[in-house]
Amino acid sequence: MLNYSRETILNTVLTLLLLGIPFAALAIDEPFYVTLATRVTIFALAGVGLNFALGLGGLISFGHAAFFGLGGYAVGILASHALNYEPLMSSPFEIEGTTQMVILWGVAMIVSGLAALIIGLFSLRTSGVYFIMITLAFAQMIYYFAISWPAYGGEDGLPIYVRNGFPGVNTLVPINFFMISFGVLMLAILLVAVLRNSRFGAALQAARQNEDRLSAVGIKPFYIRLAAFVISAMITGLAGALFADLNRFVSPSMLSWHTSGEIMVFVILGGVGRLFGPVAGAALFILFEFIFGGLTEHWMFFLGLVLLAVVLFARGGLIGTIAGKVRYD
Amino acid sequence: MTVALFAEQLLNGVQFGLMLFLMAAGLTLVFGVMGLINLAHGSLYMVGAFACAAVANFTGSFWLGLGASLAAAAAAGAIVEIVVIRRLYNRDHLDQVLATFALILIFSEGTRWVFGSFPLYLNVPELLSGPVSLPLGVEYPLYRLAIIVIGFAVAIGLYLLIAKTRLGIRIRAGESDRAMIAALGIDIRFLYTVVFALGAGLAGLAGALVGAIQSVQVGMGEPVLILAFVVIVIGGIGSIKGALFGSLLVGLVDTMGRFLLPWTFKLFMDPSQATSIGSALASMLIYILMALVLVAKPKGLFSANA
Amino acid sequence: MGKLEIMKAGLVGLSMCLAGTAVADPVKVGMITTLSGGGSGLGVDVRDGFMLAVKQAGNKDLTVVIEDDARKPSLAVQIADKMIQSEKVDILTGIIWSNLAMAVVPSAVAQGKIYISPNAGPSKLAGKGCHPNYFNASFQNDNLPEAMGAYASENGFKNSFIMAPNYPAGKDVLNGYKRFYKGELASEVYTKLGQSDYAAEIAQIRASGADSVFIFLPGGMGIAFMKQYAQSGVDIPVMGPAFSFDQGILQAVGPSAMGVKNTSHWAKDLDFAANKKFVASFQAEYGRLPSLYAVQGFDTASLILSAMAKADVKDTEAFRAELKKIDIASPRGPLKFGNNQHLIQTIYVREVIKEGDIYTNKTNGVAIKDHQDAYAVDCKM
Questions:
Q1: Which of A30, A242, B64, B135 sits between 20 and 30 A of A165, alpha carbons compared?
Q2: C3 is a domain residue
Q3: Domains of chain B by residue range
Q4: Judged by CB atoms within 8 Å, which residues 158-177 of A form the interface with C?
């Protein structure tokens, strides 16, 4: 358990850095870095969602872009209805659009949770490569639907002209929006930490390690996994909702398989199953995109090399490399 | 709708399916023998197409280009296997997905670095160009008929290779018991390199053949890669027979869906809307098919190790 | 982030002193364009055309920052934020795709930045969504297909088979064609975006009894379709907007494109002095023939250079007024902005030919003279 404390120190440093950088940026009048830190925060949140299913439950979902995008579209669609003063539906009962972030988050989480419930019911019957591919297939279905469905912009996407509101805060000020996202991220990490140490978390990890033993004590792994998959999707959906507000825009590219791949990259770069792994991973990824994207138009080539090196030589990602192998299991 | 049109669409479905089979065969072979998910299979397809276009443009001969595509993709496959893939056999699928995702980035951007941002020229050889007349009044491009023939030939060739040759025996042994084959003194590392290169060569061949009637450009492998995955998942991963069957099924369902869905909707809707909704549904159809197959058979139709 | 290319602003302070409050105030332009991944050929051409004009002008007060959006809307938004907040650019430009433009433009112009489009022209920004800070120096998405529709009607085509990918730009284009085409439709077909095999659609064309085929299949989709169409033995004439038949991809289509009629707001052989000079200097600089994207990049830069010679970019009102005059020698000939700040320009019909070893276009005539887009009436400016 010696290394555990080293991981705790690392987590604390990461948190303080993520929190400190935007304020430092404000102090030297470089507001853009606040936006960049917000982006890291939101991607980290998406990763926290995937990490719950992937790291704890061993569910390698290659379709989490579906939930990220659905969360984003929930926000985009409701906000556009509110701004145009057109109700979303009028019969049998009227549903109005809204620009209140808290409500939008709730809707985004419900929508992505329901989607995960349906997708999970089908895909959790399979395992291994089949699971990877069937989650990808469902995400592709939603992607093609979003591209060709004209009502909300199709491939062109849907702009959100004014960032949605949060009680008592001017969300248009970048640092305020950062603080909201940061708060959500911390809450999500806390939730995952609590769940991990709960009986549910123990059952989930047991389902990954030894399914038979779990069945032997009368717990059905299928339902444990389904619950984990839904929670995981809801967190990623919430990230999608925040991402929509960050960019003031949603588009089908949020649903593409590249996005699924990127969310997976955040998790693995940081360290699979590590509580703060996605934070480290998202920060590394964004920094890389930011620095090399400006240096050369062939930056993706070097990104590929770095990813490859991490997978081959730095197993356990950044946190695993620094904090050592011992984990909670 | 005439009989000729319907027959031509069926033929198109078969042809599209066999095009997918060339791609899926290598993918499923590599998975069956080594247990490896290779997302970079699409990149090897691209390497084949670029090699073919470059050599064909330089020498003026499509056939030399076709040979070059096989050689270049197989060589690229062997190198990648020795440098990277070899280290992934004992890893979980997650590491394999990520490492081969990284390979996609490297191959795509590397190819763009060498060949530039503009698509390359590659056309059908003189010998196979133009249409031929078939029964029922169907006019059909000769080149597409050639792809059908090559697709079936590759399927038979693979069957013979695996069922009748020494290499095939080793491949089958490797599928069922890795420890045993090593104990028998067979150089398993070499065997794996050969199998991977074979799969890569098939992908390269597919890239060159398809490149002649499509666009030779960076990223051309990605859409077909996803389709190939759909195919092998439906067919049962690791099974060549499943890949053939899955390819034909996906080819037919996709082609007929694109054709029949808008046509059906037009019976009771405004034509412009019908074609829009019909084609939206058609683009989702094979994924729906895949979900349905996996619900009925979670390991695909012809699972190799069920 | 570092800069791909920077034209040094020179001794800004010194020139300010010497010139007093005169016109030569520095202008910083942020270019967000697609330089990597799929479709990067278009971004490369826009950039090269733009930088050619900058180089020819030799104006030390113009700084250009260029970054790659990799065709990802969210990355384009991030770069735009950075250029506005951190680089403090005065003008944004460069975006190729409609969906990226829709992600970046509304919020950029709302923040008081001027945006000049060197390619994308989504209908949403031309009609109700028009904005005093948004200028389009390329085309509105419907322009070229409208011209093709007019051409088809004038030339006696009465039964068209029309086809486009199933996404908003595809629908805009088919609607544009239908707006000016008077004949019957044999069929209207939407394909999957990014589709590469068109056997099923070609079979439908063969069976349709159409007398003309109108397609909008940009990039690799068009290359694939034309090659497969040529192999199919169907000989119904194909036509479409210039995107599938432009310089960047014609070499990849090869003989399959020969003779195809396409509409464009520019052609290599247009008889303007500015055009001859542009084509020659582009070829000398980059060793390849320019495309229409290069022309749009070139004109965008010329526009900025012409306005900054007369007005201070910090005085947005005055600068916009200068931009609106279009005081430039465009390779496209005379240009004029409509009320929605989209171009009123002549659309030509071109035909694909072979010159030596190179496939290119020759001008066949005018499709529509001084054409304005259909959305201008919805714009309250």
A1: A30
A2: no
A3: 3-124+137-296
A4: 159, 161
Q: Could you report how far apart the first and last alpha carbons of chain B are, in Å?
A: 43
Place C56 in a pLDDT band, splitting at 50, 70 and 90.
very high
Domain contains C48: yes
Q: Are residues C210 and C319 in the same domain?
A: no
Residue from B44, B90, B96, B94 nearest B70 by CA: B44
Residue C251 with chain B: CB contacts under 8 Å: 118, 121
Contact A308 B106 (CB under 8 A): yes
Residues C120 and C186 in one domain: no
Q: CA angle, A201 as apex, A186 and B92 as ends, to 5°?
A: 95
Out of B9, B19, B220, the one facing C203 most closely (by C-beta) is B9
pLDDT in tens, C170-220: 888 999 999 999 999 999 999 888 888 898 899 999 989 899 999 998 878
**Burial class of residue C21, CB neighbours in 10 A (0-12, 13-18, 19+):** exposed
User: Domain containing C221 — which CATH number?
Assistant: 3.40.50.2300
pLDDT band at C168 (very low <50, low <70, confident <90, very high): confident
What tokens does A228 get? 């984990």
Give domain status of residue C169, yes or no. yes
Q: Which of C4, C74, C167 sits opposite A297 (nearest CB)?
A: C4
**Which among B109, B283, B298 has CB closest to A300?**
B109
The answer to whether the CB atoms of A289 and C166 lie below 8 A apart is no
Question: Three-state DSSP class for B132?
Answer: strand
DSSP string, A273-295: T-TTHHHHHHHHHHHHHHHHHHH
Q: Find the helix or strand (DSSP H, E) in which B55 lies.
A: helix B41-59
Q: Which residues contact C63 (CB under 8 A, 6 or more apart)?
A: C6, C7, C8, C9, C26, C27, C28, C29
Backbone angles phi, psi at C92, to 5 degrees: -110, 150
Minimal CA separation from A285 to chain B, in Å: 13
Is B212 touching C (CB cutoff 8 A)? yes
Task: Look at domain B3-124+137-296 and name its CATH class.
Answer: mainly alpha
- Amino acid letter for position B280: A
Of the partner residues C1, C73, C106, the one whose CB lies closest to the CB of residue A290: C1
Q: Taking CB atoms and an 8 Å cutoff, what residues of chain A touch B109? A: 298-301, 304
> Is the separation of the CB atoms in C210 and C236 below 8 Å?
yes
Q: What is the DSSP letter of B272?
A: H
Residue of higher predicted confidence among A216 and A251: A251
As a whole number, the mean pLDDT across chain C is 88
Chain A residues touching B110 at Cβ < 8 A: 301
Residue A195's Cα: distance from chain center in Å? Answer: 17
Local structure of C136: helix, strand or coil: strand
pLDDT tens figures, B77-109: 999 999 999 888 888 888 898 899 999 999 998
| DSSP character at residue C69 | -
Chain A residues inside the 8 Å CB shell of C75: 289, 293
Amino acid of residue A45? L
Q: What are the C-alpha distances in Å from C82 to residues A39, A212, A290, C31, C66?
A: 12, 53, 10, 12, 12
Find chain C residues with C-beta within 8 A of A162's C-beta: none
